[in-house]
Structures are given as structure tokens and as C-alpha cells.
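Entry 14. Ran structure prediction on the chain below.
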Amino acid sequence: MIVGTSGWQYTSWRGRFYPRGLPQRAWLEHYASRFAGVEVNNTFYNLPAADTFARWAEQTPDDFRFVLKLSRYLTHIRRLQEPEESVQLFLERSRPLAAKMGPLLLQLPPTLRCDVDRLRRALAAFPRSTRVAVEFRHASWYTDEVSALLREHDAALCLTDRRGHPLQPLVRTASWGFVRLHEGRATPHPCYGHTALRSWVDRIAALWGSEEQVYVFFNNDPAGCAVRDAVRFAGLAQRQGAQPSRVPTIAEAPVG
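Output, C-alpha cells:
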């Protein structure tokens, strides 16, 4: 199980997770010494140059994994139509990450209704060796046909949470898993409380074995909540028999 946060460049983490005097250029190195994976959302808005990916690779240890969110050009502008060129560009540009590349996140817009043919063509555009997690945001996608298509490609249905409630059916479609937690209901906002975190530990355990690979990312970054919640979640998962990746100590994860 790889546990981390959705990004690392948050100014609200300065003086909390990042020592106050640590320059921003050193934040990724600091993060990667405490976590083993990160979800990168800015690739959705702007695809970085190849030398940026190469620099990220140089700043992180060998076991670190980057999970990149695919371009909004593919998902929100083209709406999965003719995906081959967009997918190829994304893969070529991010190639410097090499062995540090984790799964790719394909997040669809909430206005895109189910279109199995578009999804089939999009998934076929990726090499079979590339793991893809798909986050649907329209309820029409939750069908047996779509689940079967995801299983055919070993693509994970991305499970997400907002305010302690799963936003998708709790269905496993791949040999691995992907979970995103957006917003909790605890204090300070948007932190997660103990009960919500434990519920997700239980849900994941019900779908995957303790040694199977599940990526869990916290996207509730304000006030340092994501860091603290990742630490607490990993502790709960470990006590239940899972094998989470490294996380900071709880003393390194203050909130508020």
C-alpha cells in the first residue's frame, strides 16, 4: 500500500510539514524522504517539459513513485475522442520518470455521460504495461459493462470520498487499487476524523489483500490536513495487517 498526498507544493505546509527555513526548491526532496509516493495534479492543467520530470526523478529516492493526472485536453476538452495523440504525447514527455512512474489518473468531467466506446478506445491507447485509474464523476458510468471493460484492461475504478461518504460503488476492477480522499468533516476543516479513516481502512481490506498494491492519496491539503491524515491512516492500516509505505512521524504532521 502506497500512502501519500495529492501534491507537495502547498504554502500552508510551511512551518507545519516543511521547516520554516527550508527553500521551496527542496520541498520535493523533503517530501520524498518521508513519503514513498505522490499524486501530481498540475499535469492535468499543464504538461511540464521533459527536463522537469527528469529533475523530479533526480530529487527522489529509487523507491519513490509519481502518480500523474492525465491532461484535461484529453478528458475535458477532447472528452476522450481520438485519444491516441494526447496519450502518446503525455507518455513521451513523462518518460524521464522511467521506473518511478506509478499509475496514471484519468479523471473524467462530471458532465461526461457514459460512452463505453470512447472509454474503450482511450484505454486501448495506453500500453498494456501502463496502469490507469479511472475516476468517473457521472453516475451513468457505474454499470456492469463498464466494470467489465475496466477489468479487461486491469484498470482501477478510482474510489473517492467527500465528507466521509464514498462517491462510487465499492467495486474492485483491477489487480490493484486506487483511492482518493478529498474532504473530511473533522476539525480543523477539511481533516478526517478517526472513524472516517478507519472506515476506509476496512473498505480497502474488504476489497484487497494485505500484500496487494493500493494507492491512497489525501487531497485535503489545507491546514496540513492531508499530511496528518495520511500518517494516521497508515497507522490504522498497519494495525489491521496492511503494509503501508513510509510516512512521517505524527510530530511532523501538525494541523491548524
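Residues 2-178 form a domain with the TIM Barrel fold (CATH 3.20.20.410). Will compare against last week's run tomorrow.
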